[in-house]
């Protein structure tokens, strides 16, 4: 087992290193931003004019970055997750997206967990009370997808605290 | 991550201004909808990758839903950007515990639990409330203006908690919104007494239940399908604190919390406090509107094993909520030095009852330290508690908070009785602390 150790640096060297990292980051963001601006200039010159007259241009830049990300998001998959819906991409994903998110948010799927029978009960409940249509041959495909990708995890009577964001408490 | 928060901060500060800055959009100043001279419409459509259909109806200051998928923070104008969106169709938004530290929950920090779509058009001048049902001799229609001018006003701080608050901890998991602990708040509500309205409409002696109807729309947009119509038994309706409210914290009720008129029934599952209220049906039977039926907002009449199947007829309607508390300061994850006295604080409530005792533990419930507990501002308001805590040595700690109600019933340290729909988890709230 070998581990890469961080070399001992003097405070001055640390500072220089931090500066280099910071500048590289700025360069990357700036390049991305210039591409976005160039694209928008071609497609919507009036909007761009207005944006740069506004005094909160950094907030605008932020917003546009979000906006541009969202535009491509319907086809964007990162680490097996379809970014626009948050759903796991696997066999049955298309059927789930088409049948379920027509009426409700995909968040209702991704935050829930159940076995096949549990998901089937939810579908029956939606059919009986919420006007969900007969899913036909898609039902089995959807149930297989949900039971595999959104299965329950045994947590006992009480879970450990998770996702703790540590911070220094000042007085 | 930082860049994703930008758009929400911009919108939370001044949504209409944000529209103008980001899109160059100006809306109709009267209706606050649409796009004046198509300003900003093309830009928004381009970024969304399509035309904005029904653009004339799009409210000012609303971030298009198509842009929300990847972004963090609160998308609803007037709500704090750090609220957690559990569901965006319908909107279900909770407040992290540390943001519930205010004595009176401000509008931007009150959770949202919608079952359907909030009404798009609110015409305050034309708003009316109808009282009808078997136990009202002749239907009565009251305009909102008359309701405000002809009946005596009352103001109370009332704790509203979703019946499914803290559902996320149940095992096996229950379906529905996986609330952590933040579907609760205690705002100051002003309105008229439900009792005064019932008496005005000459309620008959055989009245059993008061059911509400609101103006929200079903998710599938079917205008004839009622989203939710619950209510309360007549005895609860006749209590002093049961209000038909038109103001919250001295202002209009936020749209997502029921503007311009709603029921407020403190201490009971918030689903009994109908929003966008247009009609009260005074029944001579237990009300039978949508979501009154089993198993909605019901728990097994007798305790069951985790995961057990329970027949519909063996489920009972939830009435008063159980005793519960939150640690609202500090936020979980605080790192402190070993010489520091940690000044904890939070709120405690107990449904229809009062909290009489409050304790905290830093050793997983082995020993408990008594807290200072204040009396409620009025009946059914949550109560402030504080405690000074010292830690014996460096290391990882959890602070657990436990309230005890006026009948001697305390919060359990583990998740209480499993139930199929995941209601009423009042297990002790816990935060993590590191002493360095």
Question: Quaternary status of these chains?
Answer: heterodimer
Determine the structural class of chain B based on helices, strands and strand pairing.
Answer: mainly beta
What is the H/E string of chain B? HHHEEEEEHEEHEEHEEEEEEEEEEEEEEE
CATH class of the largest domain in chain A: Mainly Alpha
Q: Uncertain spans of chain B, ≥5 residues at pLDDT below 50?
A: 1-11, 43-55, 64-73
Number of domains of chain B: 3
Tally of helical segments of chain A:
7
**Major sheet attributes of chain A:** 2 strands, antiparallel
CATH topology of the largest domain in chain A: Cytochrome Bc1 Complex, Chain D, domain 2
Portion in strands of chain A: under 5%
- For the record, the CATH architecture of the largest domain in chain A stands as Orthogonal Bundle
Q: What is the CATH C level class of the largest domain in chain B, in words?
A: Alpha Beta
Could you walk me through the main structural features you see in this protein, from its secondary elements to its overall organization?
The complex is a heterodimer of chains A (171) and B (436). Chain A has 171 residues and is mainly alpha-helical. Chain A folds into two domains: 11-71; 81-149, Cytochrome Bc1 Complex, Chain D, domain 2 (Orthogonal Bundle), CATH 1.10.760. Chain A contains seven helices and three strands; from the N terminus they run αααββααααβ. Chain A has helices at residues 11-43, 45-53, 57-71, 93-100, 107-110, 116-129, 138-149, and strands at residues 77-78, 81-82, 167-168. In chain A, a hairpin with a 2-residue loop joins strand 1 and strand 2 (81-82). The two termini of chain A are 43 Å apart. Mean pLDDT of chain A is 73; it is low at 1-7, 33-37 and 47-62. In chain B, strands 5-4-13-8-9 form a five-stranded mixed sheet. In chain B, helix 1 (2-13) packs across helix 2. Chain B is globular. Chains A and B meet through helix 2, helix 3, helix 6 and strand 3 of A and helix 1, helix 2, helix 3, strand 1 and strand 17 of B. Strand 3 of chain A pairs parallel with strand 17 (334-336) of chain B.
